[in-house]
Amino acid sequence: MRSPFAALVRRDTRLALRLGGGGAVGIAFFVLAVVLIPLGVGREAATLARIAGGVLWVAALLAALLSLDRLFQADFEDGSLDQLMLAPMPLEQVVLAKTLAHWVTTGLPMTLIAPVLGAMLQLPDAALPWLAIAMAVGTPALSFIGAIGAAITVGVRRGGLLLSILVLPLYIPTLVFGARVVENALLDLSVTGVLGLLGGLTLFAAALAPFAAAAALRINAR
Amino acid sequence: MSIWRYANPAEFMRLTDRLVVPLWAAAAALMAVGLYWSLALTPDDYQQGSTVKILFIHVPAAMLAINTYAVMAVASGVGLIRRHHVSFLVAKAAAPVGAAFTAIALITGAVWGQPMWGTWWVWDARLTAVLIMFFFYLGYMALWAAIEEPEKAADLSGVLCLVGVVFAFLSRYAVNFWATLHQGASLSMAEGQRVDDVFRTPLYIMIAAFYVLFVAILVVRARTEIRARRARSLRLQEARA
Prior knowledge:
Chain B: The chain crosses the membrane at residues 21-39, 59-81, 93-113, 125-147, 159-181, 201-220. The complex is a heterodimer. By secondary structure, chain A is mainly α.
């Protein structure tokens, strides 16, 4: 795999994983946010299990949101993004590669660690695989939708707060379907229908985001 | 003569200059008739009492809360495709109006809900969807405010608005889906439950009044935006000279 696409995914993944890249910090935030909940809500098992799905998804939303600034910001500021626009692939593909790298360093580790956190929140064992599957299916949507917001605000100084106002409302459908998968698993209801909706949302975001984000990046690069 | 003639700011100003006064007159007349009819001439509802009259404000405001975003999306789309600045400015001018109507819908809804349902707020699908709408308006306005260069702000807000309209539909669907679990019987008015004739005519007048008022405010705000832009470019010219 020596294509520019693979090279870009590798580069961004490596940058995020190295010290100072912020990948590990994002995951630490995800864990910490979940750990705070029992401290605030209380340690009653039934309550925790009831809210576990929603808590994990809200924490995932926030962790994904807070790591969005590294998607385009640094490359925009040091001029790398201008170079990438000249690369022998369309800008849409650049966005796709960078978004995949973002998911590999945020959504994927969150998916892997979510069952552990779910168990700590007293989710029954039968629901844990569905939690992991829901995270695997749904978190790519967070990266894709976030890429649109990140591309729109890339030129704004101190755009972090603005980014959260723009992106969090767009995350609502993902949150609803993602948390519902866990809830249905908890209540022994069928999960496949909701999982299908969540997957459809991810595919839709994957189809829309590269074009919308690339358009925003072109406007910002003028 | 095509409609695109009015994409020229000068043509737009000339057309709207003639429209401002009639629009405000029509809005005032409709509002006066509608308010008097709906507040003074309609009977109290046999169940809701005089609280029912809040709905003469609530329903038109809620309609505009949704439809203003549609106006913005169409204007943004036209702006992005045909590169018309007036379109972007109309979208920009509409956003705070839409946010205000959304706030009015939420507040009047709460005031009506307190005596009727016994609570200011329920996590009902419609209420939640309108609340989410409010945040879409806020985000759009925040983006305009954050970017200094107007050309860039216009294009980026346009992209955001088009993405937003897609996700507004998705959220509406998701929220409907979500509400089916958390709340069995919806408290909001069921579809097909007909409003009585006594209330219907004044309600239609109020809806018309709100729409005309919306257009009147929109035109004035768009004219202000165009003038502000012209002032800005004059200042820039002066600075360069």
